[in-house]
Amino acid sequence: MSRIGVIQVGVGGMGQTWLRTVSESNKVEHVAWVDVDERVLKEKCEAYNFSPHHCYASLPEALQKENADGLINVTPPQYHKEISCTALEAGLHVLSEKPLADSMASAIDIVECAEETGTILMVAQNYRYRDVIATLREMVASGRYGDAGQVQVNFFKGPHFGGFREAMDHPLIVDMSIHHFDLMRYILDADPQTVRGHSWNPSWSWFTGDASTSLFFEFEDGLSVVYNGSWCSTGAETSWNGDWRIECQRGVILSRDDAVYAAHTGDPLERIANREQKLSDQAYLLHEFYKALTQGTLPGTHGRDNLKSLGMVFGAVEAVREKGVIEL
User: What are the tens digits of pLDDT across the range 176-230?
Assistant: First the structure.
């Protein structure tokens, strides 16, 4: 199989990124688009020179008329289960935007649907595939500074998205922090056991739900991670990856504004060159999806594994609501 064909559901908002990523690929091509907004479909058809004859208002209609190998799900989280399971049951492999679903129960249903149908389910945790993240992961895995023992992650941004995110109960934790929680597992190669913390919404926030949080995760072997974040920051913003401080037995590893530094105990910090990757973000994910479909490989962000990262999200939501320690 030289190329695979995909249906993309959702072409506005984040869908634009996937339209561009697929259009730039020589391995994957669009066979159809689905969106409930006819105006957006028309606009994107003109921008990408895509035939409106392959555009649909519903996924069932597209499945009836088009032949595809996979589907890219870029709908809001509350629609993920319906769209993903419809595609999986039709025999299509699915690459879904994060979070995998709007509840743990729905996420488990999607994963089980993929396993029952023998199809591939992959989640778009694109933050894993960036130069700075690859560098941090390699630095920790090298053991050069000993085992990691305590970590602090700081994330501060003030985006004005509009739309469904600004109406969510816990927009930061559910829609954004899933990236950082997944990175904790990926960089540290460990899984959390408990979480506790607090969330709030500053008086100036333009979000309906809590846009700020402070969380404490306990991982395996006594490893502790403190996470401080806000989506209504008023200045001195971090990068989207956040700033990381990883303290180890014999030194410290840092990232500040996506630059990595490290030092053995007592030594001055040294700038570490980031590991350059040929592909990153959505381009990396799309290539992994292609390899999974054509070579039978298991994507690093496959659905069953992603349940662990999503469990951190809904565990954190429960922790801030109940103001207690939640087992993950």
Answer: 999 999 999 999 999 999 999 999 999 999 999 999 999 999 998 899 999 999 9
Cα–Cα distance, 65 to 166 (Å, whole number): 36
**Closest CA relative to residue 181, chosen from 42, 2, 26, 306:** 306
**Distance between CA 125 and CA 110 in Å, rounded?**
16
User: How are strands ordered across the β-sheet holding 4-9?
Assistant: 55-56, 28-34, 4-9, 70-73, 93-96, 121-123
For residue 5, what are its two tokens?
């064909």
* pLDDT bracket for residue 261 (50, 70, 90): very high
- Report the alpha-carbon distance of residue 68 to residue 66 in Å, rounded: 6
Angle at 36 between CA 33 and CA 41, to 5 degrees: 50
Provide the H-helix boundaries in the chain. 15-23, 38-48, 59-65, 80-89, 104-117, 131-142, 171, 177-188, 281-295, 303-322
Token code pair at residue 112: 């089980």
Angle in degrees, 0-180, between the axes of helices 15-23 and 38-48, rounded to the nearest 10:
30
Question: Can you give the pTM of this predicted structure?
Answer: 0.94
What residue spans of 24-126 are helical by DSSP H?
Answer: 38-48, 59-65, 80-89, 104-117
Give residue-wise pLDDT tens across range 49-58: 999 999 999 9
| Residue owning tokens 């799309």 | 286
- The residue among 295, 274, 253, 291 whose CA lies nearest residue 146 is 253
Q: What is the mean pLDDT of residues 65-83?
A: 96
First and final C-alpha spacing in the chain: 41
Contact 202, 211 (CB under 8 A): yes
Task: Name the packing angle between helices 177-188 and 131-142 (round to 10°).
Answer: 30
Q: For strand 93-96 and strand 70-73, is the pairing parallel, antiparallel, or unpaired?
A: parallel
